[in-house]
Write a structure and sequence with these properties.
The chain has one domain: Ribosomal Protein S5, domain 2 (2-Layer Sandwich). It is about 30% helix and about 20% strand. It contains five helices and five strands, in the order ββββαααβαα. The chain has a five-stranded mixed β-sheet with strand order 1-2-5-3-4. Pfam families: Ribosomal_S9.
Length: about 130
C-alpha cells in the first residue's frame, strides 16, 4: 500500500521549495540535512514552521523538503508557503486559521533588474558638474 503523503510548493524571490508531508513525529529534513543544521542561526527559519503552530499540527507530520535557489531568507519563506499549502491538502479547514496570518499568500516581490547606464536598478551615477 502506498504511504500517505501531502505535497505543497512554495516560492519566494528566486527560491522554490517542494514540501512533502507524511504522518510521523515531526522530523523535518531540508535537502538531506536536519532543519536546525540547514538553517544555522537564521532567525527567519523558525517562522517557516508557523503553519504547524497555527494549525496545532506540530509534531504530527514529518516533512521532507527540497529547496533550490535564493538565499536563506527566501528559502525559509518558500518553505513556509510550501508547508502551509501541504497542510491545506491534509485538511482544507486549516485555511480558516492560516489565511488571516498571511501564511497562504505568495510574496510577489522580486529583485528589479539592473538597467544600463545606471549603477543598480535605479541608482544613477554620481552627478559631477565639472
Amino acid at each position: 500500500m502506498a504511504m500517505e503523503q501531502y505535497y505543497g510548493t512554495g516560492r519566494r524571490k528566486t527560491a522554490v521549495a517542494r514540501v512533502f508531508l507524511r504522518p510521523g513525529e515531526g522530523k523535518i529534513v531540508v535537502n538531506g540535512k536536519e532543519f536546525q543544521s540547514y538553517f544555522r542561526g537564521v532567525f527567519r527559519a523558525v517562522q517557516a514552521l508557523a503553519a504547524f503552530r497555527e494549525t496545532g499540527t506540530a509534531g504530527r507530520y514529518d516533512a521532507v523538503i527540497t529547496v533550490v535557489g535564493g538565499g536563506p531568507t527566501g528559502q525559509a519563506d518558500a518553505i513556509k508557503l510550501g508547508i502551509a499549502r501541504a497542510l491545506l491538502k491534509v485538511n482544507p479547514d486549516y485555511r480558516v486559521q492560516m489565511k488571516p496570518k498571511g501564511l497562504l499568500t505568495r510574496d510577489p516581490r522580486e529583485v528589479e533588474r539592473k538597467k544600463f547606464g545606471l549603477k543598480k536598478a535605479r541608482r544613477a551615477p554620481q552627478f559631477s558638474k565639472r
